[in-house]
Amino acid sequence: MKLEILLLGALLNRPSTGYELKKFFDTHGRFARSNTTMSQAYRTLAAMEKRGWVEHTIEERPGASNAKRYHVTEEGHTVFIDWLTRPYNPPTRFQDPDLYARLGGAGFMTVEQVLAILDVEINTRVAEVARYRHRDRSRHDEPPRGYDVALGNQMDEWLHRRGAEAMDRHIASLIELRRRLLDGEPLNQDAPPTIVRTEEDAR
Amino acid sequence: MKLEILLLGALLNRPSTGYELKKFFDTHGRFARSNTTMSQAYRTLAAMEKRGWVEHTIEERPGASNAKRYHVTEEGHTVFIDWLTRPYNPPTRFQDPDLYARLGGAGFMTVEQVLAILDVEINTRVAEVARYRHRDRSRHDEPPRGYDVALGNQMDEWLHRRGAEAMDRHIASLIELRRRLLDGEPLNQDAPPTIVRTEEDAR
DNA sequence: TATCACCATTCCACTTGTGGCACGGTTACC
DNA sequence: GGTAACCGTGCCACAAGTGGAATGGTGATA
Fold first, then answer.
1. Is the pLDDT of residue A194 over 70?
2. Using CA atoms, how far apart are residues B161 and A156, in angstroms rounded to an integer?
3. Which residues face A70 on adjacent strands?
4. Would the CA dihedral through A8, A11, A16, A19 be positive or negative?
5. What's the pTM?
6. Which residue in A97, A172, B35, B87 has the fewest CB atoms around it within 10 Å?
7. Among the partner residues A26, A143, A154, nearest to B186 by beta-carbon distance
8. Which long-range contacts link A117-121 to residues 24+ away (Cβ below 8 Å)?
């Protein structure tokens, strides 16, 4: 995930200072990126301004040091939309934030574009499961020095199960999301319980 | 995640060539790292050899080009164990492979060391949930140009729910793992159904 | 016989990210 | 009065990763 794109997305939501952006990625933007350093945020912002993607206005802080509030320009807006609507290429690890970063920009897309992304992701992951799920994950010919075979093997098996479960749930939730988008159903309402009509209700 | 450490871990399992390692990270090692390039694998391996962490033996391939098979040295083994047993510092994103990379080395640790890692992870994530779960994730003062508010808001909400669910499940599965390790139960056996003893059984 | 996929290694220019520091200010609390 | 946490910007040396090309071979398929 390009920091630039994440920054553009964040700034479209809310023009911010470098400091605020860093804070955002440390707190609510945690899902999107780990360890954003101050230097990185400022340096990238400066580079983006040179390219004309963002501009800043100076915010006077009487007494304290002034802050630069960055806004996305027309050009930056275009760059962001181009990225969003560019064919989606799923990352190797399904846990990587790429998909969620794109879905986070859903408001800038049509339902069809969102569906296209979902289809690519779903197909990719389904293919991966078919390919790798039952391959043996064989280890050492002989265990290395100081290796607790019982613990190691059990943990490997546990890790494999957790991984498989997480992948299955990932796929299932995306399929459900896709269905709801397709059927025009609300995305977040819990599925209504099946209504049982008694004889009395029917009357 | 340092590539070096991952490489050391993989080589402890099975001495390999650079090509094999790259393949491994493209297939079964997918969970640990995305996009390992050839150049990176070879370059890192060379650097590690210079530092004395690995050595290679040349494997003759009559007719074809010879392959270098890398083995972990005593020193490399020590480096790996040092990393494994060093205090665990959870990454920002709980989906990052750090925890699973460590647990993958469980065979080189004692149960107590594994438990220590689990405790740190569980406590960190529980604290994060307490901190961020109910904070508002407010957006634009006014939506940017071409923004579909209905779709955007619904997707944001969906994303938030999915994220919260994934985090909850992550924590729950680690708590269960911890309990089993503590009680000496098998890690992967499904919980036995509660046995209902009837009057007749009792006799 | 051409083409493709695979095996195997290496180099290189380039972009990104890391970790630490320096500067300078405010507000809150003990 | 001290000190800690927060706000704010910026520089720098260095480490790490990217993307592509070059080289040279095998085996299978069309």
1. no
2. 29
3. A16, A56
4. negative
5. 0.88
6. B87
7. A154
8. A117/A88, A118/A174, A118/A177, A118/A178, A118/A181, A119/A178, A120/A87, A120/A88, A120/A89, A120/A90, A121/A88, A121/A90, A121/A174
What radius of gyration, in Å, describes the C-alpha atoms of chain B? Answer: 23
β-partners of residue A72 are A54
CA distance A33 to chain B (A): 7
Strand D positions closer than 7 A to protein CB: 7-13, 16-21, 24-27
SS3 B16: strand
Q: Provide the CA A23 to C1' C28 distance, Å, integer.
A: 20
Please, are residues A22 and A38 in contact by the beta-carbon 8 Å criterion? Answer: yes
- What are the tens digits of pLDDT across the range B28-84? 888 888 888 999 999 999 999 999 999 999 988 777 778 899 999 999 999 999 999
Instruction: Give the integer Cα–Cα distance in Å for B180 and B188.
Output: 9
Nearest to B107 among A148, A161, A166 (CB): A148
Does residue B194 sit at the A interface (CB-CB below 8 Å)? Answer: no
Please give the structure tokens belonging to residue A185. Answer: 């159903």
Closest by alpha carbon to A110, among B155, B37, B176? B155
